[in-house]
């Protein structure tokens, strides 16, 4: 049972002593004090199904017994060596982790967060290529450090720092749902976008249209047409589960390499079996990146992140000292190994594919009944549902409506996230251990809440013009 400070005291401390950037979801924010697998418990003993996994972080389940045990055993033996002495765990873990990669991705540097991992990837790309400019997509999220804030391309996540855009070019997002090209069958998902396609009957052109657009940057914007790197999430996470047209990333990687750069896959959200079919999201795009960055699910909630690259690219870190006090510490390494074990032993990648595909198909059925579902997309247990005011224009559902839906689902016992510039995309990133029953529970709640919402909307229409501005 809960024995912490009162709810009011927590709110007061938060207001007085924590910096205002601390995100608290919901009008009445939750106090969560216990977790077990896919379940979270608040201070009053209410149970919630966690369909967001602390933003994709809790990969194998809250307080998974095997991960807990590995951590407990390690904390009893050794916490820390600052890497100035060798400890066995980091070596054991490095071997286990790089074995998960294709090609020559054999060197790993451990850090503590996704932002740090992407910072290091930017440094490696610039040192290795001798070029400065880095491309990424509008709508991308790569971190909050001053360096990576420049890569992140949502104005809502950016502060007016001097030089935040220095050496970074945000290129057009190849988004087949909200972008200018795209439509049916463009992307690699068990369900396809409802948007009617403007491509010729011979096949989808979105990939090549967006590719041509990307190519223009080399002609017009980049000095000498050279680039250090391009970064891409394998599916955009914070941006609202945005998937690119099939084949685009592979061609983009070739283009970047032909112009002096390397390609960085940000697998912070899409790694560790999340997308079901593959262990890494980039494998679904049929190319091998030069650097892969990972965080979140790698440690099931323990601060752990990594950069994996080729020995040739890693060699540039020999040019000067580069140090990270906590990176790959014994506890983090023990947790990382246990997470890999659990994913394998409990066949969680397979579960992600099976349960995720069932969830996606069921959501597509729900979409038939509710106009406000503009789009259902994703792979495995990386799923997005875009709520719209109008299916034709794809205008986002207004924030007060999205917030009401979100809050009511929480009150009924299911938690999920919101993404996209307008916050109108429901993001599901549950621990990979969820069951078909958990999906049914979520679908029932969504069905109830969407029905309530549509009833209200019809009632409001009858009350006349006052309501129109809402959507
Ligand atoms: N890359 C991606 C794709 C992310 O989603 C995030 C975090 N939301 C980051 C990088 C940054 O990770 P961190 O918050 O651990 O710095």
From TrEMBL:
Known EC number: 2.6.1.18, 2.6.1.40, 2.6.1.44
Keywords on record: Aminotransferase, Mitochondrion, Pyridoxal phosphate, Transferase, Transit peptide
Enzyme class, broadest EC rank: transferase
Family annotation (PROSITE patterns): AA_TRANSFER_CLASS_3
Cofactor list: pyridoxal 5'-phosphate
Tagged with keyword RNA-binding: no
Record carries keyword Mitochondrion: yes
GO biological process: glyoxylate catabolic process; L-alanine catabolic process, by transamination
Subcellular location, principal: mitochondrion
GO molecular function: (R)-3-amino-2-methylpropionate-pyruvate transaminase activity; alanine-glyoxylate transaminase activity; beta-alanine:pyruvate transaminase activity; pyridoxal phosphate binding
UniProt-listed Pfam families: Aminotran_3
CC annotations in GO: mitochondrion
Swiss-Prot/TrEMBL catalytic activity: L-ornithine + pyruvate = 5-amino-2-oxopentanoate + L-alanine; (2S)-2-aminobutanoate + glyoxylate = 2-oxobutanoate + glycine; N(omega),N(omega)-dimethyl-L-arginine + pyruvate = 5-(3,3-dimethylguanidino)-2-oxopentanoate + L-alanine; oxaloacetate + L-alanine = L-aspartate + pyruvate
Subcellular location: Mitochondrion
Record-linked InterPro entries: Aminotrans_3, Aminotrans_3_PPA_site, PyrdxlP-dep_Trfase, PyrdxlP-dep_Trfase_major, PyrdxlP-dep_Trfase_small
PANTHER family: ALANINE--GLYOXYLATE AMINOTRANSFERASE 2, MITOCHONDRIAL, PTHR45688
Similarity field: Belongs to the class-III pyridoxal-phosphate-dependent aminotransferase family.
The protein's assembly and partners: Homotetramer.
Function: Multifunctional aminotransferase with a broad substrate specificity. Catalyzes the conversion of glyoxylate to glycine using alanine as the amino donor. Catalyzes metabolism of not L- but the D-isomer of D-beta-aminoisobutyric acid to generate 2-methyl-3-oxopropanoate and alanine. Catalyzes the transfer of the amino group from beta-alanine to pyruvate to yield L-alanine and 3-oxopropanoate. Can metabolize NG-monomethyl-L-arginine (NMMA), asymmetric NG,NG-dimethyl-L-arginine (ADMA) and symmetric NG,N'G-dimethyl-L-arginine (SDMA).
Protein name according to UniProt: Alanine--glyoxylate aminotransferase 2, mitochondrial
Species this protein is from: Drosophila albomicans (Fruit fly)
């Amino acid at each position: 049972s809960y024995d912490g400070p009162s709810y009011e005291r927590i709110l007061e401390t938060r207001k007085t002593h924590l910096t205002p950037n601390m995100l608290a979801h919901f009008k009445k924010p939750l106090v969560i004090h216990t977790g077990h697998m896919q379940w979270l418990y608040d201070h009053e003993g209410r149970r919630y199904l966690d369909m967001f996994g602390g933003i994709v972080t809790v990969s194998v389940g809250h307080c998974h017994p095997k991960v807990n045990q590995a951590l407990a055993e390690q904390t009893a033996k050794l916490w820390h060596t600052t890497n100035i002495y060798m400890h066995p765990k980091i070596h054991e873990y490095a071997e286990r982790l790089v074995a998960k990669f294709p090609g020559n991705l054999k060197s790993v540097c451990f850090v503590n967060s996704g932002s740090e991992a992407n910072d290091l990837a930017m440094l490696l790309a610039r040192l290795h290529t001798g070029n400065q400019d880095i491309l990424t997509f509008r709508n991308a999220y790569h971190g909050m450090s001053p360096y990576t804030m420049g890569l992140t391309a949502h104005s809502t996540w950016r502060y007016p720092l001097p030089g935040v855009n220095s050496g970074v070019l945000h290129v057009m997002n190849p988004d087949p749902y909200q972008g200018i090209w795209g439509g049916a069958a463009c992307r690699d998902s068990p369900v396809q976008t409802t948007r009617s396609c403007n491509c010729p009957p011979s096949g989808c052109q979105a990939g090549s249209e967006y590719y041509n657009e990307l190519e223009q940057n080399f002609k017009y914007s980049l000095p000498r047409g050279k680039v250090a790197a391009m970064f891409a999430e394998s599916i955009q996470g914070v941006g609202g589960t945005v998937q690119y047209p099939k084949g685009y990333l592979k061609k983009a990687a070739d283009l970047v390499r032909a112009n002096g750069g390397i390609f960085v896959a940000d697998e912070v959200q899409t790694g560790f079996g999340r997308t079901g079919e593959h262990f890494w999201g980039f494998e679904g795009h049929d190319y091998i990146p030069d650097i892969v960055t990972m965080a979140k699910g790698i440690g099931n909630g323990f601060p752990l992140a990594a950069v994996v690259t080729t020995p040739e690219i890693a060699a540039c870190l020999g040019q000067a000292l580069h140090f990270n006090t906590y990176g790959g510490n014994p506890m983090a390494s023990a947790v990382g190994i246990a997470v890999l074990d659990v994913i394998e032993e409990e066949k969680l990648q397979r579960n992600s594919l099976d349960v995720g595909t069932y969830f996606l198909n069921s959501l597509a059925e729900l979409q038939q009944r509710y106009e406000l579902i503009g789009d259902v997309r994703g792979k495995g247990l990386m799923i997005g549902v875009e709520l719209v005011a109008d299916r034709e224009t794809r205008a986002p559902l207004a924030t007060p409506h999205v917030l009401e839906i979100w809050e009511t689902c929480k009150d009924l016992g299911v938690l999920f996230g919101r993404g996209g510039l307008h916050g109108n995309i429901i993001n599901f990133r549950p621990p990979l251990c969820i069951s078909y029953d958990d999906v049914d529970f979520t679908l029932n709640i969504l069905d109830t809440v969407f029905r309530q919402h549509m009833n209200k909307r019809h009632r409001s229409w009858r009350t006349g013009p006052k309501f129109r501005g809402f959507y």
